[in-house]
Amino acid sequence: MNSYKSSESESGSESETKGPEVTEPDIKTVSEKMESSTRRRLAANARERRRMQGLNTAFDRLRKVVPQWGQDKKLSKYETLQMALSYIIALNRILSEAERYCTERDWINLHHDHFHQENYHPYLGARSPANADNYTQNIFSCQHENFQFVN
DNA sequence: TAGGCCATCTGGTCCT
DNA sequence: AGGACCAGATGGCCTA
User: Euclidean distance between the first and final Cα of chain A, in Å?
Assistant: First the structure.
C-alpha cells in the first residue's frame, strides 16, 4: 500500500542523508541477531508442533478407551472430553452403587443397567456445543451428590 | 457454499 | 536465555 511504500522510502532516504553511520560490525551484529531470532522462532515452532502432536496422541489414546457406540466418525476433541467426563462419572457411580449392593447378583444387574447405551443418549444427542454444555451442566449438577473426594 | 474441525504459526507470559 | 504453555489468527479440508 501507499503508506507502507512511503514509510519505506522515507526510512531509506533518511539513512542515505542523515542516518547514523553503519559500520561493518554493526551490520554483522544486526544480521546475526535476525538470524538468531529466526532460528529461535523456527525451533519454537518445531517444539509447539511436537507439543500439539503429543496432545493429539493423548486424545487418540483417550478415544480408544471411551465408548463410541455406533459412531463410525471419530469423536472430535471436544466430544472426546465430554464423553470421557460422562464415562468417568458413570464408572464412578457404578463403584459407589456397588458398595451399597451386597450380593453379586444385584451388582451384575446394576452393571448391566449402567452400561446400557440408553444411559448415554443425552450426550449422543448433543450435536451442538451449546447442547453439550447443557448436558455438562446436568452432569455436574449430579456430581455434587455422587462424588466424594478422599484425601 | 457455509460451518465445523484441525494443524500450524506467532507473540505473550510464566517458570527454571 | 530458553522452554513450556496458552490463545488468537489463518488457511486447508471435509461434509451437509
Answer: 64
Q: How far is the CA of A33 from the C1' of B12 (A)?
A: 20
Q: A131 near A139, Cβ under 8 Å? A: no
In chain A, helix, strand, coil percent, each to 5? 80, 0, 20
Statement: residue A91 has pLDDT above 90: yes
List the A149 CA – C2 C1' distance (angstroms).
Answer: 39
pTM above 0.90, yes or no: no
- Nine-digit cell at A67? 465408548
Top-confidence range, A3-17, A21-35, A57-71, A132-146:
A57-71
Nucleotides of strand B under 7 angstroms from a protein beta carbon: 4-12
- Give the contacts of A23 (CB within 8 A, at least 6 positions apart): none
